[in-house]
Design brief:
about 400 residues, mainly alpha, two-stranded antiparallel ribbon, 13 helices, 2 strands, about 75% helix, about 0% strand, elongated, 7tm6_olfct_rcpt, cell membrane
């Protein structure tokens, strides 16, 4: 059985395979699906851009309303292109995950990695639920006149609206149902690609955190004194070396430390490879999300007297803020887990180790003084502190747009 068919990864694999983006699947079918997705994105993106160009000089409110769908479609396109452009790197990441699992022998280490794999699975489920719920609220706008005509009928039917502002060079009233159906299909596809790629991003980062946690577990058990009273003996450092030296135990400690160094290096290389895959897309997505939050905030103000639009655009704004948070959280978790390596090295029983073991431990201490981190474009660190700054920036742009509208 395929390793990634197990419960921790099967949801992510199925999501990615539906769109031909599973890195380890190199069949003609997967390539066809991937290029089909890209083609459909362009067939929606171009009509949006044409409409935006037309409205930019005639109707500022309609122009603003066109921006959020473009931001979402562009974000999904960026994620799809990222998978296609870095397909070889993603294959290496998945092979590392499989090898890490197969090389584990210790039951506790398996439990640690299982915990983080399960965390990635839970993130996948909750993210899928939240984004799907937000999308359903956004898609409810074209259907609201039908519902209102039933619940609160007027002398004339309420005007039906399309989901997106697009230009297909046809009469929208004559082809309303066809265009609306196509808009819904595109929206579902765009959101599905976002879910598939974002959740896989979290799975990669959670695995990196799991490797760091295994290194911490090993460091916590190196050089531990069998006798707790000896550990806190005030005369321990004054005793002759021969009284405390155990050659067999020293060799065991040295081998354990050497393995810690190798695993720590492996975790760092895994994060660096993850950084290589996402550095360009992250900086693009950050900019798109800041623009999206600002614009949807303005839309909420524009439609302040229409409760259904306020409800819809308000949830869309929250969804974009949540998406930005979801992009930032893996970077913060990687920083926290890699920084803990230094803390656990410092708190270990280093004082009972031999000189060569201390020299080996110092290699881990020196490298872990600088935590690993994910950098967007090599400039912006993905931390929760910077996330707050970005949201504040988006709110500032929102205030400016509201005042000049």
């Amino acid at each position: 059985m395929d390793f990634f068919e197990q419960r921790y990864y099967v949801i992510n694999k199925r999501f990615m395979s539906y769109f031909g983006m599973w890195p380890l699947e190199n069949s003609i079918k997967s390539k066809f699906l991937f290029y089909l997705v890209i083609f459909i994105f362009f067939t929606m993106y171009l009509p949006e851009m044409i409409k935006v160009t037309e409205l930019g000089v005639t109707d500022i409110d309609a122009f603003i309303e066109c921006i959020p769908p473009i931001v979402v479609i562009k974000s999904s396109m960026v994620k799809a292109f990222t998978v296609g452009f870095h397909i070889n790197h993603f294959q290496v990441l998945l092979k590392h995950i499989e090898e890490d699992w197969r090389n584990l022998k210790d039951v506790k280490e398996m439990a640690i990695l299982s915990e983080y794999a399960e965390s990635g699975r839970k993130f996948t489920i909750w993210y899928t639920f939240y984004i799907s719920f937000t999308t359903l609220l956004y898609l409810s706008l074209p259907l609201s006149p039908i519902v209102l005509n039933i619940l609160s009928p007027l002398n004339e039917s309420r005007k039906m609206e399309l989901l997106f502002c697009t230009e297909y060079f046809v009469n929208e009233e004559d082809y309303f149902n066809e265009i609306l159906f196509y808009d819904y299909a595109i929206a579902v596809l765009v959101v599905a690609v976002l879910i598939a790629t974002d959740t896989m991003y979290m799975v990669y980062s959670e695995h990196a955190c799991g490797i760091f946690a295994i290194v911490c577990y090993r460091l916590n058990n190196i050089g531990k004194c069998e006798n707790k009273e000896e550990k806190y003996d005030n005369d321990f450092f004054n005793k002759p070396k021969d009284d405390n030296y155990d050659e067999i135990q020293d060799e065991k400690n040295y081998q354990e430390l050497s393995l810690c160094v190798k695993k720590h290096k492996h975790a760092i290389e895994f994060v660096e490879l993850l950084q290589t895959c996402y550095t360009e897309s992250l900086i693009t997505l950050l900019l798109l999300n800041v623009v999206g939050i600002s614009i949807t905030g303005v839309q909420t103000i524009i439609n302040i007297h229409n409760w259904s639009d306020v409800f819809r655009f308000g949830f869309l704004t929250l969804g974009e803020a949540f998406h930005l948070f979801f992009l930032t959280l893996p970077g913060q978790r990687i920083i926290d887990h890699s920084a803990k390596i230094f803390e656990d090295s410092y708190d270990s029983c280093w004082y009972v180790l031999s000189s060569r073991c201390k020299r080996t431990l110092s290699l881990i201490l020196l490298r872990s003084m600088t935590p690993c981190q994910l950098m967007a474009g090599g400039l912006y660190s993905m931390t929760l502190e910077n996330y707050v700054s970005l949201v504040q920036t988006a709110m500032s742009y929102f205030t400016v747009l509201s005042s000049v509208r």
